[in-house]
Design a protein that fits this description.
Shape: globular
Strand content: 5-15%
Structural class: alpha/beta
Strand order of the largest sheet: 5-4-3-2-1-6-9-8-10-7
Radius of gyration: 32 Å
Distance between the termini: 79 Å
Number of strands: 12
Largest sheet: 10 strands, mixed
Length: about 1150
């Protein structure tokens, strides 16, 4: 019995006690995870109830008709109560905005205005004969325009419930006072993001080399080839954009034709003319602007931010007010947009971005748009001269008196150049610190713009946002939440931050964009509504409104300390909470926001915010809050901050513990029958993952806003993609969190926000996931194989462990599944480039170690060798001594435990691998002496297969008797144990090397020489302890897996009508010929359908409805809408 002291360390007792301890640990971690899933369910139920009380039922249901019949229609009456007697003017501005964005056709715009009894030009009222004021059927309009309008009208119910006086409080009221609108400053911090896509970028992407890694110096075929590709190798970038929004491209062609800029209104001709450089400069600019409004660009954010100023400028009372001040731009006292561009005019910036910024400033010179840039060393001489001329003209300035300054300017229309308005000299740079410990860039850039902000309230916008002008008209009402008009005590506003909804427009950009958008949309709606109800909502990012006075007096809108404040936005929420202020959330306003739509960029985003959560836990703000709130509030605070990330780490740990538990059960001779007799739930397969509960909030919110049928269709339709995507990303979150815990450093990952069709090269995939996914996948797969082999050798019943198998398989294949266009030429290119990456010699010389380290820090590694060695050196350089010592002690304890738990018959096989390692060590020496012959290195990678024949020499016939298959458990388990022990010895050598480095530097030795010796020892250990060779084996397995999965997807596309492309990207790409190029020979598929039918075009991005029917529903006697055809007759109706 295990209770007897003599039997405590016996094999049977150790395995039995281990299984019990692992089981209890698994249950404990499961309980911690269950708490978070209970929060998920609570947020879903309570959030949906709160949404019902906020009148969010059918919020975006486009099947409900909109009746704008003046004084009669429900929506017309609501519109007038909310905005006053001039509501029809506001409706005209909204429709014109949709038309200008090419979201609707000219005919549709005319129909929308006719439904309200007004015309497009607004010059003459419509006659009774011209009035066709029938209810609008939004399902006959493009999806984006329909959802915008549906949300606009439904959200007016909340505004209408605020108890406004129509004559004084509505924007077009008879006695409305423009002074009642608080001023707003919108700040757009930009670094070096794309402002407007260049002509070269839009035309590129279709060549095979465009799908390969690019050179940093923009010289194809030369240099390091470490930058991401600039296309998919099949279609041009513009063609892919058109495939996502074919109807909107058709509308652009019609609009340019109607305005007289092009001769034909055929969309394919417009595309071909652009590609062949036959368009006028004006049309080229229109195409570039059309593209920038359909990608994540700075221009999209700027144009969206300007909508609020344009909305105010269209109001009659505002026009009357500014008529008294002709020197001012209309509404510039009420709203200003500040583009805080950090690299404008700087040597590190992009000249094309500078030109695009000037284009925006000139194009929108009549709007309240300002540029704030950082004047510093490296800024162009022309900008320095412009600033010095401004200061000299004001007097008292001496050249050279300052080295840095923040400069605010605007576009001067008469001079067609920038004009300086204000200069704020600084003693220190915009970002403080050195190297990896510089202050957070975006937070500093926000502060640079905030210094010039004049508004009562401030709004910071990321460079991937946008706004519909209809939402802009609601902003004055939303801002009254800070200070209601009937508030008597006006010493302080009701809140400091005000959050609202976000529409994730990248949900239309393929499977990755849809999965990412669904998660972000759920958090921005039902979850934040619930957190607001608990009083624990934080500031999670833009576009929240902020009390400007409060932000200026507390250092800015977010914190910028290096490393700690990587997730800079949430600390503003901490600041609010610590001062007992509030940060509510409203559902009546919605801005647009983009998220990553390629797989690698989405992974980098999740890794960034996960690492930032570790910094949140370690922060002083977190400790101050947790010390001063009770247990209940601490739980709420936990859920509202880092619970999601910590829970993912716990889930990841339970996967390994689950397999280890059954290995211990098997070694302890506890089979499934015995577990069943004990009544344990471990005796049955765990098929139901708790992760399914994460779908509940999304499902309930979609039911609330869209209706049950569409909610079920959307959730079930994206379930396959979401399953693979989030299994992979949950592991990504857990790996980033684990790395943050080990190093204590939160690293910033630049995502780049590329388009969804960007090719994901196998080299980039491996560099991104080799440590976070591939290594853990092989570890979990090894444990799974050990369990299955042990069970089959002991003839016990085995659990299939479906979820475990799905996990490690998903970690291996998901990046390829989400890679677009599996074409044989691209597969051959990836095989060739990835093989060169595995066997490349770059960075292998001793004198190149310093460069390898720098490349590892910047992510510009060229070969597998540089990838692994840079990680080893950076890990041992950055890790603290106590962390290294703790890791070694834990690993040593694990080795001792393994020696107790594993039978001696298995441990005897360790001698085989000791001999193999000795042979490989001689091969390493020969490799170094022979000038690094790759043949010798590859022989070491496969040398471990010699274990079987060498086993017969070391152990005799016992090693292979009765068969090799019978001895597989001993061979596999002993190999895993040996590799683990070998890694422990390597760490022991390296910690002694780290201590020797400390002794050398502390005793007056040269730091550079000590560091060189330190790195050289790591390099030698990297080879002699077989670390690099094992990584080569892993890379070759990944090469084989990638090839097999890619070929399978190629066959799916070839044989089943581009099904993978349709699923991953969009229907237009899916309908393209397998070896074809979109728009090369035929118009958009939606347009060609109508051309075959002989009908005109007025399409729907998702449903493809043609413009053969009227857009208005005629009420029937039964009360429901019935669509009445007005063109095409019975044949058109039958065709539909």
């Amino acid at each position: 019995a295990c209770t007897e002291s003599a039997q405590v360390l016996a094999f049977g007792c150790v395995t039995c006690v281990s299984s019990v301890l692992v089981g209890w640990l698994l249950v404990m971690l499961g309980g911690l995870v269950d708490i978070y899933f209970i929060f998920y369910l609570a947020s879903a139920v309570v959030g949906s109830v709160m949404g019902h009380k906020r009148h969010l039922n059918d919020l975006k249901n486009t099947s409900l008709p909109i009746d704008l019949h003046e004084h009669q229609g429900n929506e017309a009456i609501l519109f007038e109560r909310t905005f006053g007697p001039g509501w029809q003017h506001i409706w005209r501005v909204m429709v014109k905005s949709l038309l200008a964005e090419s979201l609707i056709s000219p005919k549709q715009a005319s129909g929308l205005l006719t439904a309200a009894g007004i015309s497009l030009d607004g010059e003459a009222p419509l006659t009774h004969r011209e009035r066709k004021q029938k209810p609008i059927h939004l399902t006959r309009f493009p999806v984006l325009a329909a959802e915008r309008l549906a949300f606009f009208f439904q959200s007016l119910k909340w505004i209408d419930g605020q108890g406004m006086e129509q004559a004084t409080d509505t924007l077009t009221g008879v006695h409305f006072d423009p002074g009642s609108i608080p001023s707003l400053t919108q700040i757009i911090p930009a670094f070096n993001e794309v402002v407007i896509p260049s002509v070269e970028f839009l035309r590129a992407g279709a060549e095979q080399e465009d799908a390969n890694n690019m050179s940093p110096d923009d010289q194809p075929g030369l240099g390091d080839m470490t930058l991401p590709p600039q296309g998919d190798g099949v279609n041009t970038n513009l063609a892919f954009m058109i495939s996502q929004f074919p109807d909107e491209w058709v509308f652009l062609a019609k609009r340019l034709h109607t305005d007289g800029w092009i001769e034909s209104d055929q969309s394919q001709e417009l595309y071909q003319d652009f590609m062949k450089q036959r368009l006028s400069p004006h049309c080229v600019t229109e195409v570039r602007l059309w593209a920038c409004l359909r990608m994540q660009s700075v221009a999209r954010t700027v144009i969206g931010a300007l909508q609020y100023g344009r909305a105010l400028a269209s109001l009659p009372k505002i026009k009357e007010h500014y008529a008294q001040f002709p020197e001012k731009r209309i509404a510039e006292d009420h709203v200003e947009v500040i583009l805080a561009h950090q690299t404008y005019g700087h040597a590190e910036g992009n000249p094309k971005n500078d030109e695009a910024v000037q284009m925006l400033l000139e194009r929108y010179a009549d709007d309240a748009l300002f540029l704030v840039f950082d004047l510093q060393k490296g800024t162009s001489p022309d900008l320095w001269a412009m600033v010095e001329e401004f200061l000299t003209a004001r007097g008292g300035y001496r050249p050279g008196i300052f080295k840095q300054a923040s400069v605010k300017c605007k576009w001067d229309k008469p001079r067609r150049a920038l004009r300086v308005l204000e200069v704020l000299p600084r003693k220190f740079p915009l970002r403080l610190g050195q190297g990896e410990f510089k202050t957070q860039g975006k937070a500093c850039n926000q502060l640079n713009g905030l210094r010039f902000a004049t508004g009562h309230y401030v709004q910071a916008l990321d460079c991937n946002m946008g706004t519909f002008i209809g939402e802009a008209f609601k902003v004055p009402y939303i801002l009254r939440t800070f200070m209601p008009l009937d508030k008597h005590d006006r010493t302080a506003p009701n809140c400091r931050y005000l959050g609202f909804r976000e529409y994730i427009y990248t949900g239309r950009e393929g499977a990755v964009g849809k999965c990412h958008a669904a998660a972000e949309w759920t958090f921005g709606t039902i979850t934040q509504r619930f957190l607001s109800g608990m009083g624990m909502r934080m500031h999670y990012g833009h576009p929240d409104f902020v009390d400007g006075f409060w932000a200026r007096n507390r250092g800015g809108m977010s914190k910028s300390s290096p490393v700690v404040n990587l997730s800079e936005d949430i600390f503003a929420g901490y600041n609010v909470r610590m001062r007992e202020e509030s940060s509510p959330h409203v559902d009546a306003l919605e801005f647009e926001k983009g998220r990553e739509s390629t797989f690698n960029s989405a992974s980098n985003f999740f890794a960034k915010i996960s690492g930032g959560s570790i910094a949140v836990i370690r922060s002083r703000d977190n400790h101050l809050l947790c010390d001063r709130i009770g247990l209940t509030h601490s739980l709420s605070f936990y859920f509202t901050s880092v619970a999601f990330y910590v829970s993912n780490l716990f889930i990841d740990m339970t996967i390994y513990l689950y397999v280890m538990l059954f290995i211990a059960f098997t070694l302890a001779d506890i089979d499934l029958a015995k577990l069943h007799e004990l009544g344990s739930t471990f005796s049955a397969e765990w098929l139901m993952s708790m992760g399914i509960f994460s779908l509940v909030p999304q499902l309930l919110e979609m039911v609330l806003e869209f209706g049950a049928m569409k909610a079920l269709r959307e959730v079930l339709g994206m379930l396959p993609a979401a399953t693979f995507f989030f299994i992979f990303q949950n592991k990504n979150i857990a790996s980033a969190l684990r790395t943050g815990v080990m190093t204590g450093i939160a690293k910033y990952f630049f995502t780049g926000r590329p388009m969804a069709n960007q090719h994901q090269t196998w080299r980039d995939i491996y560099v991104t996931y080799w440590k976070s996914h591939y290594g853990p996948a092989f570890s979990l797969m090894t444990l799974y194989i050990i369990y299955q082999v042990l069970v089959h050798q002991t003839f016990q019943g085995a659990l299939p462990m479906v979820l475990v198998a799905v996990s490690f398989i998903s970690w291996l294949i998901t990046p390829i599944i989400f890679s677009p266009f599996p074409r044989w030429a691209l597969i051959e290119q990836d095989i060739r480039e990835f093989s060169a990456f595995i066997n490349g010699k770059a960075g292998k010389e001793e004198d190149e170690v310093g460069e390898v380290v720098k490349r590892g820090q910047t992510g510009k590694v060229r070969t597998l060798w540089e990838t692994g060695l840079a990680y080893e050196i950076n890990s041992w350089t950055e890790a603290s001594y106590w962390l290294c010592a703790t890791t070694i002690m834990l690993r040593s304890a694990c080795v001792v435990y393994l020696l107790f738990i594993i039978p001696a018959e298995i441990l005897d096989f360790l001698w085989i691998y000791i001999l193999v390692w000795s042979i490989n060590t001689l091969c390493v020496l020969a490799y170094l002496l022979s000038g690094q012959n790759n043949l010798l290195l590859n022989l070491q990678a496969v040398g471990w297969l010699l274990a079987v024949p060498i086993g017969s020499v070391v152990l005799g016939s016992r090693a292979v008797s009765p068969t090799v298959a019978t001895r597989l458990p001993e061979l596999i388990i002993s190999f895993v144990v040996f590799i683990y022990i070998l890694g422990l010895f390597k760490e022991m050598v390296l910690i002694m090397n780290k201590c020797l480095y400390a002794v050398r530097t502390c005793t007056g030795g040269s730091h550079s020489i000590a560091m060189r010796h330190h790195n050289q020892m790591i390099r030698k250990c990297f080879l002699y302890f077989q670390a690099h060779q094992m990584e080569m084996v892993q890379a070759y397995i990944i090469l084989i897996v990638n090839t097999l999965v890619s070929v399978l997807l190629l066959l799916v596309d070839r044989l089943i009508c581009n099904m993978h492309t349709w699923w991953l990207l969009n229907r237009e790409m899916g309908r393209m010929e397998f070896d074809g190029q979109y728009l090369a020979k035929s118009p958009p598929k939606i347009e060609s359908d109508h051309m075959r039918d002989g009908t005109s075009i007025g399409t729907n991005s998702e449903l493809g409805y043609e413009d053969t029917l009227d857009y208005f529903a005629t009420p029937t006697r039964g009360g429901g809408p019935a669509v009445t055809p007005t063109r095409g007759g019975a044949n058109a109706t039958a065709a539909r």
